[in-house]
Amino acid sequence: MAFDIAIYLNRIGLARVPTTVDGLVALQQAQMRAIPFENIDVLLGHIPNLTEDSIWAKLIDARRGGYCFELNKLFGLALEALGFTIQPILGRVRMGAVEGGPRTHQAFIVTIDGADWLADAGFGGPAPIKPLRIDTEELQAVGRDVFRLRADSASGELVVERKNGNEWFALYGFDRASALPSDFEGANFICARWDRSPFPSSLMMSVLTAEGTANLLNKDFSMIRNQTEETETLKTKTELQRLLSDVFRLQLPRSTIESLWEKLGSCGRV
Hints:
Blueprint (H helix, E strand, L loop, with lengths): L4 H8 L8 H14 L2 E2 L1 H4 L8 H10 L6 H15 L2 E9 L9 E10 L2 E5 L12 E2 L6 E3 L2 E8 L4 E8 L2 E8 L6 H13 L10 E5 L4 E5 L2 E6 L2 E6 L3 H10 L7 H11 L6
Antiparallel strand pairs: 1-10, 2-3, 2-9, 3-4, 4-5, 6-7, 7-8, 8-9, 10-11, 11-12, 12-13
Helix pairs in contact: 4-5
């Protein structure tokens, strides 16, 4: 199918996007507000289909979310349709570790007026909500958060780090190695099936809101409101359904809610 940029922009609530840095920022943030990070299908035992038709059917027609390979596949198609110059890359997730794991996170290097930007609409949670300038080691403020790209001589990667209090927390590392469709297919399978991947065993959801970010890890929900974090633990299936509908804007079949709640009952057990 041909990528219909008008329908995509309507889905994320934008009228037009210039091929500028401001346009790139607006596009990433609009997708992160409209289409949540969620791994429901993987948690329920499915391997996401990364064909363009399947991504469109799920994220646009069915108004679902997805995890990085789905979200950034859609994001990349939109970037190309709009005329941005992009390079797909695969990063190594660290989440605080000294070293990264296998290459299992998709993102993009976007070149605008000779400058390179790391654009990523699919990491969720603690990730920056706007692109980061790649060719600088200076601190980069993103809303109330501060990030940096640190050169790691051991791995040859640039590491995306977020400042947590007085400490730096590593999110993922990346380099400029070319990534092919087969690389993303293999990484997608690893994320969906590997017993050391978090996605088959834990519910992970995130969406950008007007006030901050909403996150759900299994039954633990957190919401940033006016720079204050509010938390709660879901106790009933009805609370889960309300949260999915009202905050993440997902309208799921009752059978899916039933299966998801049953799965959450076993999450975290040894």
